[in-house]
From TrEMBL:
Gene3D superfamilies membership: 3.30.1360.40, Cyclophilin-like (2.40.100.10)
Name used for this protein in its record: Allophanate hydrolase subunit 1
SUPFAM superfamilies per record: Cyclophilin-like, PH0987 N-terminal domain-like
GO molecular function (one): hydrolase activity
Length: 248
């Protein structure tokens, strides 16, 4: 699986397996976080689900790995490892491993995005230029975690790299759009957080699907495009204009 792949998507994975529990294995494909990883990770996800069938308890894709939880009543670890090796022996990313593209409306404003002006000042650019650059890239969803529906996205333009806040806020409003290091995220619910908040979206990120099951708007492999909207459009879409600090 090593070397450059035939699809022109960078370096192909080098498979390593790590035991993390009596019924769980981490499948490590890469060492570096790259957007091109996700086509491989999603291809591995599909192949492993087919290979394990009813013996699969859970499978969680992430930046460079997949966490596989299998039924120990059906498989011993050696058998699980053999299935993984066989399933991924001829792994190749397919054109169908792109995920969905989501356009996310964002109201960028100091009242709901308190780090907007300070980051622009630090970079020596206008707030308008920062907004334009933040929305100029389609962000890959690498993983879900921290809170239901919270998607870790990247990779942020290197020049916009910004460390997390030294002192996290106690309460972040739902829909807050933030950046930290070279990642972007949206807070799906009211929670503490240390990301730099640039604005707010009116969309709901987590709820229940038609079958009544918990459902996240974003899934690993999806892409997110932030689209700047006016205050009026934000309100029309159902957005809450209460300033962030007033919600704290």
């Amino acid at each position: 699986m090593a070397g450059a792949d035939s699809h022109g998507r960078g370096t192909s994975p080098q498979l390593r397996l790590e035991t993390v529990g009596m019924d769980s294995l981490i499948i490590r494909l890469f060492d570096r976080i790259e957007e091109s990883n996700m086509a491989w990770v999603l291809a591995a996800d599909s192949a492993l689900r087919e290979a394990f069938g009813a013996a699969l308890v859970d499978l969680v894709p992430s930046y460079t790995t997949l966490l596989l939880h299998y039924d120990v009543a059906a498989l011993e670890e050696g058998e699980a490892r053999a299935r993984i090796q066989a399933a991924l022996a001829d792994l190749a990313p397919g054109s169908g491993q792109q995920g969905q593209l989501h356009e996310v409306p964002v109201w960028y404003d100091d009242s709901v995005g308190p780090e907007l002006a300070p980051i622009a000042a630090r970079l020596g650019i206008s707030v308008e230029a920062l907004i334009e650059r933040h929305g100029a890239h389609d962000y890959c969803v690498f993983a879900l975690g921290f809170a239901p529906g919270f998607a870790f996205m990247g990779v942020l333009e290197e020049a916009l790299t910004t460390p997390r806040l030294k002192t996290p806020r106690q309460k972040i409003a739902p829909g807050s759009v933030g950046i930290a290091d070279r990642q972007a995220a949206i807070y799906p619910s009211r929670s503490p957080g240390g990301w730099n908040i640039l604005g707010r979206t009116p969309i709901t990120l987590f709820g229940r699907n038609e079958a009544g099951e918990p459902s996240s708007r974003f899934m690993p492999g999806d892409r997110v495009r932030f689209v700047s909207v006016s205050r009026e459009e934000f309100v029309r879409l159902g957005g809450d204009v209460t300033p962030l600090e007033e919600r704290a």
